[in-house]
Amino acid sequence: MLTLICRHFIACSSHYFALTAIALLVMMPTFSFVPEGEHLEQVRQRDFITLHTRNTPFTYYEGRNGPTGFEYELMRRFADSLGVSLNIEAQHHPESILSTVRERGDLGAAALPLLPDTPGIHYTRPIINMQPLVVYRRGINGINAPSDLVELSLGTLSGAGTGKALRELQRDYPELSWRESQELEVAELLAQVENGSLDAAVIFDHQFRINRLFFPNVEHGFALGEPVSMAWAVPSGRGLGLLEAANRFIEDLQQTGMLDQLMERYFGHDDYLEYVGTRTFLAHLDARLPRYTDDFKQAAQTTGFDWKLLAALGYQESHWDPDAVSPTGVRGLMMLTHPTAEEMDIDDRRDPAQSIDGGSRYLRSLKDRLPDDITGDDRLYMALAAYNVGLGHLYDARDIAEMRDGNPNRWADVREALPLLQQREWHSKTRFGYARGGEPVIYVRNIRRYYEMIEYVERSRQQFFQLGQTPVNADPLVMFESIPSLD
Question: Which fold has domain 132-226?
Fold first, then answer.
């Protein structure tokens, strides 16, 4: 009898606990139990990772040496660490990246500000800090403090992280106002400051350093607010394996010093296109050029260029330093990329004679590949521009010149079109997309200046010799006073 009672009690108890468990399950929220490494395993199985980014100088673009950009470099290394290839989707606005990552993407990397409460997104550990900076149009005086912004026409980019500093400032200055756009990129914002559409803008310090040479009428103002942490974004709900792998990768970059090296490579050399003053140039002309004059003359015989033009190109590239290495890894006196050196059959890029020979023949090949309708100096200047920015971007600029009712065969019109490759409105219509289009314009201008100076010195020396005098006694600074400006 006792056994039957016990059995009945156990059966009732089991029934009670079962009902209770069912009730608890109904009351509890549902969770999808995702294996920790599911997303990471999917990436490895398909053998590629998709990066959602933007076509900008900080993130990703087609450069002289192929794909480049600070975050592209980081992501390429991360993909290598996973043993997979890198697939890039770069046609994004700042605010479309997170929604795409949340819905279907692997990873977003586009100077994203770390916003921990973003639904459906996990952020990696901070990669770098980005300092908001006020920049303003030259001629507007007294822009030294936040209070000076109240009366100005001010702009910034939507979703970039700079708006946070302005909103915090608005607490102290309620009358402060600004325009916030998701349709513009940094170069377009700076162009608006330059042309007077805006008085000032808030961007990040590194963005100004990348672009400052292209906008000489935009001044560095002051730091605004606290730095913003930049991070990568991965979708939540698909396991933490990819996030943890990214965090380990970032931590390793930081601890080994590799991240600092990449920062120096991309943002520590903002003077590449600075025009070197006469005194510095003359010092190099006297101390360095004589070592390589015969090599330039030999290359001129091979390629048909004026040796002084080739020397001017070499000075722009390296200041006649055979051991020079650029931030992007090109090297040697003529700064050849590794693929270009192979194409020109150059074994040692640091050998001055080989570098001059290879660079001169490469310039010749660029000039020969241009359409026959481009003639005279226009053809030469476009070849020089292609040496800097690549033929693909030069052809894109020619297309833009034609879109603007210009002549794609005239350097003057292409020169006006090249900087537009920095604006989304225009580079979105081209084959190769964003380029630092202002760079080849300054590049060609500088080479023309250096060529004029070398030409003037050589001509002056010949005149001195014809008069039976020595040019050493002449003051070279006085010689250059009559050289016309090429601005």
Answer: D-Maltodextrin-Binding Protein; domain 2 (3.40.190)
CATH of 38-126+231-267, one of 2.40.50.140, 3.40.190.10, 3.30.300.20, 3.20.20.70: 3.40.190.10
The C-alpha atoms of residue 305 and residue 357 are separated, in whole angstroms, by: 12
The bridge status of strand 132-137 relative to strand 107-113 is: unpaired
- 156 in helix, strand or coil? strand
SS3 111: strand
Q: Is residue 202 within 8 Å of residue 136, measured between CB atoms?
A: no
Evaluate whether 360 touches 309 at the Cβ level (below 8 Å): no
The closest alpha carbon to 448, from 400, 487, 399, belongs to 487
328 confidence band (pLDDT: 50, 70, 90): low
240 Cβ contact list (under 8 Å, min separation 6): 36, 37, 122
Specify which residues 135 forms β-bridges with.
Answer: 201, 220
336-372 per-position pLDDT tens digit: 988 899 999 999 999 999 999 999 999 999 999 999 9
Q: What is the pLDDT of residues 56-90, one digit of tens each?
A: 888 888 877 678 889 999 999 999 999 999 999 98
Of 317, 343, 402, 425, the catalytic one is: 317
Token readout for 60 is 């990703």
Active site residue 36: no
Residue 331 makes CB contacts below 8 A (sequence gap 6+) with 323, 324, 325, 349, 350
- Contact by Cβ (8 Å): 118, 98: yes
- Domain spans, the chain: 38-126+231-267, 132-226, 278-481
